[in-house]
Amino acid sequence: MDATTKRISLLSLDAIKVTNPRTRGKKSFRDIVDSIESVGLKRPITVRKREVDEGAFTHDLVCGQGRIEAFRLLGQTEIPVFVIEATKAEALLKGLVENCARRYHTAYDLLRDIGRLKESNYTDADIAAKIGLSTEYVRGIARLLSKGEQRLLRAVDSGQIPLSVAVDIALADEPGIQAVLQLAYKKNQLRGHKLAIARRLIENRRRRGKGLGTFLPERAKNPSAAALMKAFKADTDRKRILVRKADAARNRLLFVTHALRQLMAEEAFQDVVRAEGLDTLPRNLAARISRVEPA
Questions:
Q1: Distance (Å, rounded) from C-alpha 277 to C-alpha 162?
Q2: How would you write the pLDDT of the chain (295 residues) with one tens digit per residue?
Q3: pTM of the prediction?
Q4: CA 62, CA 81: separation in Å to the nearest integer?
Q5: If you write DSSP's letter for every residue of 221-254 in order, what string do you get?
Q6: Nearest 5°: CA angle at 139, between 100 and 62?
Q7: For 27, phi and psi rounded to 5 degrees?
Q8: What's the first-to-final CA gap in the chain, in angstroms?
Q9: How far apart are CA 282 and CA 10, in angstroms?
Q10: Which residues contact 92 (CB under 8 A, 6 or more apart)?
Q11: Which end of the chain, N or C, is surrounded by fewer C-beta atoms within 10 Å?
Q12: What's the 3-state SS for the chain?
């Protein structure tokens, strides 16, 4: 059972293993450091005694990674702790619940923790009851995690596509994905900008794989020369398109500048803009019009 000792004890930072590391923004971490430096540690971290010591590690962290990192940054070697009696799975669940209860937490970490709880043989209903989510939501997240759909998970996390649509995309084949998008459009789940984002996401998933941070699909760990040439050609084509767009924008700018310069030289035009109270121009635009462009 989960039983927290009332007594606070000091524990070496080197004896604590962070088994479930998380990422956080620089500002939030700096706030933690500044708070500890100015007023001290408000609440001890929570750890559990390891069943088997692993080198110097005698305890696993349950919650308090930010406080540990802040203590290290401030040059401390020990930190106040609460020691609880819990299995590895119970410690993970307790840490997840505490993270959900905080005002700020990373939603993607929550999705990842759901996967870890599933690996620890917790049912969807158990996880949902513990962290205050619906069983359908947990089941959908677990399904995406089991299929390695990191791109879809990130899109769900950021609110770009609904979870139900993401699950349908993960289960569909290539032709079926278009049917999923059409149905989502009819149900008003994906409209306008969100539909465009979903299409771009699906294209990236097809070209780059389900995971994040890889240009080629995960199965192509050793890309062939043909694949590399194809990627190089695609990148070259994109750059050529950018150059053409830049040239077109420059030509349009030159045309507009020349046209305005001619108009501003006409007395009748100046009379009209003065009458309408439009006889002043932004400084940069006026400077460009007054310059003589090279032929």
A1: 50
A2: 444 445 678 889 999 988 777 766 677 788 788 888 876 787 888 888 887 777 788 888 888 888 899 999 999 999 999 888 887 777 776 776 666 555 444 555 666 667 777 777 778 887 777 666 677 877 888 888 888 888 888 888 777 888 888 888 988 888 889 888 889 888 888 888 888 888 888 888 888 888 775 433 344 445 567 777 777 787 788 888 888 888 888 888 888 888 888 888 888 888 888 888 877 777 777 777 777 555 4
A3: 0.41
A4: 10
A5: SS--HHHHHHHHHHHHHHHHHHHHHHHHHHHHHH
A6: 35
A7: -65, -45
A8: 84
A9: 65
A10: 19, 20, 113, 116, 117, 120
A11: C
A12: CCEECCCCEEEEHHHEECCCCCCCCHHHHHHHHHHHHHHCCCCCEEEEEEEEEECCEEEEEEECHHHHHHHHHCCCCEEEEEEEECCHHHHHHHHHHHHHHCCCCCHHHHHHHHHHHHHCCCCHHHHHHHHCCCHHHHHHHHHHHHCCCHHHHHHHHCCCCCHHHHHHHHHCCHHHHHHHHHHHHHCCCCCCHHHHHHHHHHHHHHHHCCCCCCCCCCCCCCCCHHHHHHHHHHHHHHHHHHHHHHHHHHHHHHHHHHHHHHHHCCHHHHHHHHHCCCCCCCHHHHHHHHCCCCC
CA-nearest of 3, 78, 73 to 31 is 73
Can you point out the beta strands (E) in 13-121?
Answer: 16-17, 45-54, 57-63, 78-85
Residue tagged 């990674």 (tokens): 65
Tokens standing for residue 233: 């050609």
Distance CA 165, CA 180 (A): 7
